[in-house]
Amino acid sequence: MYLELAKRSFQQQFAYRAATLAGLFTNSVFGVMLSSVYLALYWDKADGVSVAGFTAQQTVTYTWLGQALIMPVVFWGWWLIVDTIRTGTVVMDLLKPMDFFRFWLSRDLGRAAAQVITRGVPTLLIGALLFDLVWPESWQRWAAFLISVPFAVTVSFCLRFMMNLWGFWLLDHRGISSIMLVVSGVFSGHLLPIAWYPAPIRDLLNVLPFRSMLMTPVEIWLGQISIVHGLSLQLFWTTVMIGASYALLQVAERKVVVQGG
Amino acid sequence: MDKPITLREELGIAWKIAGIRLRGQMAYRTSFWLQIFGNFFTNFAEVLALFAMFYQFDTLGGWTLGEVALLHGISMIAFSLGDLLTVGMDSVAPQIRSGDFDRVLTRPLGSWMNAATSEFSLRHLGQALQGVLVLGFALTQVEIAWSIDKALLVPVMFISGIALFMALFTIEAIFSFWTVNGVEAINAFTYGGSDLAQFPMHIFGRSLRFIFFWIVPVGFITYYPALYLLEKPDPLGMPDWFVLLGPVITTIFCAVVSWGWNQGIRHYRSTGS
Fold first, then answer.
1. Do A175 and B38 touch (CB under 8 A)?
2. Chain A: residue nearest B197 by CA?
3. Ordered per-residue pLDDT tens for chain B, 273 residues
4. Which of A176, B70, B94, B196 is 20 to 30 A removed from A254 (C-alpha atoms)?
């Protein structure tokens, strides 16, 4: 049944053709722009010199992976559950004979799978046409990267799920939305490679779950982390985030009952 | 609705409307300050990225932190004030869909002014404030030999920058008179443009430079004024007087956008919705 839900939302994504093209255009313009900025930082460095573990070529690859994963992983602006809370359909969803968390997760994974195809792959191809990118050095790394993306989506989903439940208490998500922007934009490593920040910030971001959303997949791609280390780190954080989501859901469900009474 | 009204009267009424909306917002004082604070916090990431980049690197395309911060400050101020003055443009598309746009058109001002003042929000002041702080920081880092022409350049630079972003936000609304599909592509020019203007133009490739100088002229609002203020030679080899092109091109750009707006209104009326 959950597989069916995932399949439905997978197919749904292919309906928005104009939006897909517009999005690809925007991602590409930003990709070219950011790549140019990063390359300009390396102007006074010799070829192949790495700064905080990144050569110029690796930094450009990081940029395009970041742009390619924006839509599949979703780093900001996702308030679908809050919307159902406002319209009241959430009650129907809770009454359905299925697990509320899995109901949303399976739909989100279906959406992400579609957007890997419609947004992720094309963006990366455009990047590869315009710039010299680094590719995973072995088929094991390719496979590991492909496994790491669903982990990234799941961690991101749990974060969004919890933020949405939180929005349910506050009945207004604008304030949380700016916190969410910083958490997923900065803490995931989307804004800048985490290794570039000054030591205290870097060390903090390295022990938080949010690097699983982007930095760890990128490191697996670039070969900066061993496959086993990278994937087990993601597995650990995915488990923790799912557990936290269920715990918060339980509290929230009790609250719905009280309000409904 | 098109009865003759002088620009002075029009601005007077727009000012009054803005005052009323502002008072409306101030009624919820906590929410008002929270929104300004939230906006400040959100845009903090941009500034954080700038400092973190220069924590690892010494120069960006040959420019120092202070010099790039100067570009950041100018761009952030122009973008946020341009956004602030055209907040109403964001609601043109939903208003067209819900039919409320007819009501907007019946107000006493010109159609653009009516739409622009249909909403007003001061939260963008959060980003403007941040731009001022970054600009202040930049001024402590770089040395500018002030002269009369440079002092005159500053207001011209800000006014054309703000006008350019107002025009860009208007384009988004113009498209919505015809279609609701794919309007997001304009984000590449508004948000992309303000991000791009935060860096020296010579680091970008030929095609990006062409787009952002000659089609959407954001390159002129920060790069040439900054070169002039810092007395840096242009790596792109353009002459000094290029700094004057900014206001000229912005004026042309605004004229084209205003023509497009009128076409949009005419199209809207002729469909009779």
1. yes
2. A33
3. 455 677 787 778 777 877 777 777 676 666 667 667 766 766 777 888 899 999 999 999 999 999 999 999 999 999 999 988 888 787 787 777 777 777 777 776 777 877 777 776 677 777 888 899 999 999 999 988 899 999 999 999 999 999 999 999 898 888 888 876 667 778 888 888 888 999 999 999 998 999 999 988 998 989 999 999 998 888 888 887 888 888 999 999 999 999 988 888 888 776 654
4. A176
Which of A36, A39, A131 should we substitute to test contact with B (largest number of B Cβ atoms within 10 Å)?
A: A36
Domain housing A45: 2-260
> How far is Cα of residue A134 from the mean position of the Cα atoms in its chain?
21
For residues A93 and A100, the answer to whether their CB atoms sit within 8 Å is: yes
Number of domains in chain A: 1
Residue type, A181: L
Give the separation between CA A205 and CA A197, rounded to whole angstroms. 9
Record the pTM.
0.88
Helices (H), chain A: 2-12, 17-41, 56-73, 80-87, 89-95, 100-115, 121-130, 139-170, 174-186, 199-206, 215-222, 227-260
